[in-house]
Amino acid sequence: MVLKVIKKHQGFSLLEILIATALGLWLLAIVMQNYLLGKNIYGKAEDLAVLSENIRFADFVLWQNITQAGFSGCKRLTELNVSNHLSSKLMEIKNIRGYSYRQAPKSLSSKVILGNDIIVISKVATEVWYLTVDIKKGTKSFDIDQKINSKRNRWLMISDCVNADLFEINKHHSKTIRFNTPLQHQYKKKNTEVRFFEEIAFFISNTGRKDNKNNPILGLYFSINGGNKSEIISNVSDMKVYYGIDLNNQGTIDKYYSAAEVSDIKLWDKVLSVVITLTFHSGYFSRQKSLYIKLRGRE
Asked: What is the pLDDT of residues 160-189, one digit of tens each?
C-alpha cells in the first residue's frame, strides 16, 4: 500500500494583504507625486521659455520698425519739403509720435485697450521704383520701371531727396501710376525714387480669444495707414511709452516725457529714443520688460 503525502498549502493572510496593499498605494503615491512635480516643473519651464521668446520677438519687431522712424530713402521725412495730398487722412507728417488712450484719434482709440499708450512711426518702405522719364509739376500720372502691387498699400511717396509728394494711388495699369491731385514738384528721372509710405501704429488690443478662466486675451498689435489691426504676439496686457528728448540740441537725451507732454511742448522732431514698457504673461508668470530703442540718424 502506497501512502500519499498531502502537503498543506498556506495562502497570504488578510494582514499580509493589507500591508502589501498599503505599501503598493504608498509607492504609487510617491510615483504620482514625482510625476506631478515633474509635470509642474516642466510646465513652468515651458511658460518661462514662451515668456522669454515673446519678449525677444516683441523687442525685435519694435526695434526693427521704430529705429527706421522717418526713413525716406536719403533724408528723414521731416527734412524734406513734402506736399501732403493725404491731408484729410494724414494731418501732419512726423517721424514719430505717440498718444495716450485719451488723446488717440478715433481710428486708433476704437482698437486700443483703455489705459494703454500708442506709438506711431512714419517711414517709406524699402521697396523702391524709379521713373522712366522726367516729369513736370502738375502731372497726375507717371510711369515707373517695374510693376507695383497696390493691394496692400495705396499710399505712395515720390521724392528727389529735396522735394516730395505724398499721395494715394487712384488706379494703376501695368507700370503707369495715376492719382487725383497734381504733383506740386517736378522730378528728374536720375534722382527720383518712388516708394510706399507707411504710417505704422503699435498698441495693445483684444485678440477676441479667452483663456481657460474665461478672461479676454490681450496682445500687441500694429496697423498700417489706419487699416485693420494685425496681431504681433498675444498675452501682452499693458504698454507704456516714454520719449527721450534732446532739449538743448546737444545730441543727448535731457529728459524722458510722456506722449501728452511731448505734444504740449511740440518737440516730436527732437525725439532721440523711446522706452517702451510691456507687461507679458505666460501661464504661471507675468513680467514687465522695458525696451530701449534709439532712432537711427539721431546722434
From this structure: 999 999 999 987 677 899 999 999 999 999
